[in-house]
Design goal:
Elements (H helix, E strand, L loop, with lengths): L1 E11 L4 E8 L5 E10 L10 E16 L12 E20 L2 E19 L10 E19 L2 E11 L9 E12 L2
Parallel strand pairs: 1-9
Antiparallel strand pairs: 1-2, 2-3, 3-4, 4-5, 5-6, 6-7, 7-8, 8-9
């Protein structure tokens, strides 16, 4: 179980298509597109109106992570890794008020991490290669409040992992969302 924080600048490419960048705490920088297939747009939203959107985003990052304190080995190591994430899904929303949207989200997340360990104190693990990939399912319930060109939201989600090389888990999370319309 964990809490995520995300900042998402977005701009409208057309009346129903938005481009966005997502800076989050548990994933690489993500670039994406969202297409509102039906319903009133944010500017024309009214109480009790509904909307449906699909989206896709992706990102890739290379980095080193220091040792985690919960790893049961002695010594200090770094994991040089590449982390790639593709997230696509659908969002159904219903306006509680013209400026407040309650929504449900269902998404598929495809994730790949690979790299090597730098662990000079343990020759068995030094430069050992690793690969972790999977396809995960995420469902969320959220509330988004629109004020001028800012959006503030809170989402509760459940993530069911589908790792190919590791045990699968189910995690609950809260996502705090701050987004800014830049157009």
């Amino acid at each position: 179980n964990f809490t995520q924080i995300a900042f998402t600048p977005q701009t409208g490419l057309s009346r129903r298509v938005d481009a966005f960048i997502k800076f989050g705490t548990h994933a690489p920088l993500m670039y994406g597109l969202k297409w509102q297939m039906f319903g009133d747009t944010k500017k024309r939203a009214r109480r009790k109106s509904s909307s449906f959107s699909i989206y896709m985003s992706g990102g890739k990052n290379r980095y080193q992570t220091p040792s985690e304190s919960n790893i049961p080995i002695s010594g200090d190591f770094k994991a040089n890794r590449t982390h790639t994430v593709i997230d696509f899904g659908a969002i159904y929303g219903k306006r509680i008020y013209s400026d407040m949207l309650a929504y449900t989200r269902l998404s598929r997340i495809v994730e790949d991490m690979h790299g090597s360990f730098d662990f000079e104190e343990n020759s068995n693990l030094d430069q050992e290669q690793f690969k972790l990939s999977g396809s995960h399912l995420s469902a969320g319930l959220g509330l988004m409040w629109h004020v001028r060109k800012m959006n503030l939201g809170l989402e509760y989600s459940i993530l069911k992992t589908g790792w190919e090389q590791a045990p699968n888990t189910t995690a609950n999370s809260f996502l705090l969302i701050l987004s800014k319309d830049i157009k």
